[in-house]
Amino acid sequence: MNDILEKRVDFKGVADNTFKEVLTEEALEFLSSLHKKFNKKRIELLKKRDLVQKRFDKGVFPNFPNETITIRESDWVAAPLFSIDEEEDKGFPENVQKFNDLLNQYDGFIVSLAEHNGSYAAAFKNIFDWVSRIEREIFRDKPLLLMATSPGGRGGASVLEAANSTFPHLGGNIVATFSLPNFYDNFKDEIIDEDLRIILNKAIITFEKNI
After folding, report:
1. How many folded domains does the chain comprise?
2. Is 129 inside a domain boundary?
3. What value does the mean pLDDT take over residues 152-162?
4. What pLDDT does 4 receive?
């Protein structure tokens, strides 16, 4: 352990015996790799931050990046917040009607759900509510593969349970589901757990057979 500490990580404080339980060889090697990979960039960013702070100190106000100006100044919105009053007053938003029309063009749907506080994400729920007012059978009784993930061990189980309960009443022909738990451990550009990859492939095959 001492050799590793001397070669890879320079500790300024006092490392007692309890540090060995956390700072294992693997952990120190990981810290060393992070330092080698990102330290140059980290220093560059810190220097940029100092320059920006000096501008603020001189009275310059912060602003949005120039590269996002086309997004910020364009007149777009996915859909206003759904309400009966909004619908009765203004009718269905154009983008919602376009989205609803698109659903007629596909043979099936793969829906990957983000889980926010154990339920649907607000943006999804909003478009979901709007479209259901135009066409109650949102999913047109077409094959549906449901997926979800989360950083925790349940893998978005709560939002999947909600969808499994609700979607069949809205034209959802759920033929397969897939849950990816512990996202940051199990996904590195692709799913790294072999068992999870097999489960996903089986779900995809089932979905394809029902198209």
Report:
1. 2
2. yes
3. 91
4. 43
Helix H or strand E encompassing 53: helix 25-57
Full residue range of the structural domain in which residue 121 is found: 76-210
Residue 180 main-chain phi, psi, to 5 deg: -110, 105
Q: What is the mean pLDDT of residues 131-146?
A: 94
Burial code of 103-139, b = ≥16 C-beta within 10 A, e = fewer?
Answer: beeeebbebebebeeeebeeeeebbbbbbbeeeeebb
Q: What CATH number corresponds to the domain at position 103? A: 3.40.50.360
pLDDT tens, position by position, 179-200: 999 998 998 888 999 999 999 9
**Same domain? 16 vs 119:** no
Confidence (pLDDT) at 64: 75
Residues 49 and 123 in one domain: no
